[in-house]
Amino acid sequence: MSESIDAPQHGSPQPTSADTDAITGTSTPASLRAQLAGISTLSADALISLDENGQIRLFNRAAEKLFGRPAGEVLGKPSTYLFPKGLIPVGHSPDIGSPNTITSTVYESEQIWAVRNGGEHFQVQVTIANVEWSGKTVLVAQLKAEAAPQMATNAPPAAPSLPDEPWAQFIRQIDLDQHHLEAILQHMPAGLFIAEAPSGRLLLANKQAELIWRQPFVPLANVRQYSSYKAFHLDGHPYAPEEWPLARAIQSGEVVTGEEIDFIAGDGTHGMLSVSAAPIQDRHGRIVAGVMTFADVTEQYQVEHAVLTALHRTKELYDISQNIGMVRRPNDVLDVLLRNSYLQNCSHASILVFDTPFIDDSHSGGHSDSHSPSSASVYATWNKNGNASRLIARLIGQHLPIQTDWLKLIRLHEGPILVADLEADQSLPQPIREYMERLHTRSAALFPLIANGEWYGYLTFHATQTGLMKSQHVRHIQGLVDQAAVAIHNMRLLEAEAKARREAEHANELRLRFLAMISHELRTPLTSIKGFATTLLADDISWDQDTQRDFLKVIDTEANKLTDMIEQLLDLSRLEAGLLRIRPQAYTLNHILSSTVAQLFNITRNHRLHIAVPEDLPILRADQQRVAQVLINLVSNAAKYSPAQSDITIAAGRDGDFVQVSISDHGPGIPPHERQSVFEAFRRGEDNLVRHTKGAGLGLAICKGIIEAHGGRIWIADNATPGTTVSFTLPINT
Predict the structure, then answer these.
(1) Is the pLDDT of residue 111 over 60?
(2) SS3 393
(3) Which strands, in side-by-side order, build the sheet including 454-463?
(4) DSSP secondary structure code for residue 628 in this structure
(5) What distance in Å separates the CA atoms of residue 606 and residue 108, rounded to the nearest whole number?
(6) When you count CB atoms within 10 A of the terminal residue's CB, does the N or C end of the chain come out lower?
């Protein structure tokens, strides 16, 4: 064809979409209708088309001008409405009503009488063609006026003229072009939708479109019905019907190129489309249709997504690896590790360190487990919410019993232990299981911490739901854990070195304090003893019996002080050497109190001592003499530092598997920053009253050693009222 509706040229009148419908009606196929509309509008001659029933279906603007009638009046009328004898050339009688009999047959020009609006008759020269289209035969006529309108009835016909070559060529080739176009569209490698404007009615979809969507083509009537195709933006929210690229191309003329759309095919499978769309315009620039092409790029998208994910993971692992080498605290190591997106479900993490490195002698022919650890202590913890709860804080330093056989089992795995569901997995030792249950763990992973060939602990990751991590991600996490193991090992070495340095400095400080204490605390009673003894032995003075007795009492009291101080020093040295003997037996707290209550009331003779210990407390496993020593030391301190006639209270209650005992007074109290240091030997508070009260600062240090030797702990408790409360725990006899 020499002309085309979708190749606009400026300067020529073009039909609107309304023109297309009014001129051509609705029975002609969409592609033919669009092409005929373009040709008929461009033609200066009148064009008329009849359908197989002889009714007028095309009436262009030139015909409107020629007949003086609007298209709306003519369309649908029989041909005799314009031509008294019908629109059949003289001497020819084609079978218009019989389908599939003539294909693109053109008849030579003839003259025929026509009727103008108002009843005026005039002659026109007509070229008529019958065209077979989609199993139907239509008649197309090209009209040219030969003379001015007149009423003559016997006017001779004008000489015939040759048909308009471009028009005749269109008529001859239209069928061939249609089949050619359909073949091209159906064999396109991309899916194709064509829709008319402005309704958005889908006119055509090729076979590839049906294959991509895995469903037969449905000719939707309008844009609103596009919602039957399920698709989503890349951020996950659904495409509204008017958001489809085809709808945007038709409604606003937008040209869309390579828009990615997540879609759900007819069989329910997900995929990814790359979609392009553009409007089809007539020569006047009006949008008459739209076309959308799309390709299934699911595999390509998955490959690209996998590559991008791998690059992101690699960069993430590199950044974490770099940061692990820069941190200086074990909690920071956990914080860096938990930035890994593979661990996004982790709710808690812990570093557990053995009391001694694990060495498996079975591979070297040995039979001794003397090098195997018996427990693991909580070295550091991490919580997802960033807050160290009271439970988590109490876990730091807690010792968990470890079974050697279980450690050997882990060692045989030569890798982490994954616990998919704690409720169903019974392989964990009970102490480890109880530890996880206290953290509300449902799934976990345990990675051995090995550095320089030494297995010194393990790192645990916890989640409150099943499926903490996938097995294919373990390899990536293992690499980071290996780096963390070296970093933690180095931190422990540095801590051990710093601790040894501090202990050496502390030992030197203790030596100086000990010398100062000896020079002060021992000299005072010795001076009294020496003074009174010398007085009694003087030859130049005679003392009565009562005075001599008073002098001897002072000597006895000061000697007792020396004896007590020496005993404390001996206890302290035994504690530091680990030689303090603890002989625990089954006792009630009330039994221990009854053995020392007289001494306690004597110590508090200037105060009011209250004992609030329930009778139904469980039985303790304790060394009666040593626990009594702790009670005497703590009550003695309370009496020493609290005002006369003030209250001193001994209270007790159950705390899980322990009994907690608290001694409270109304003294000056201990500032929070000193509450740890007061349990060190020779360390005393900085308060004026404390500094001016006699004492070597050994009592609390000895109490701490005795309580910890029992498996309990001792601390300065928070107190809502003025004064000090010292609390300690003792284990229940089981």
Answers:
(1) yes
(2) helix
(3) 399-401, 375-383, 348-358, 454-463, 443-451, 417-419
(4) H
(5) 141
(6) C
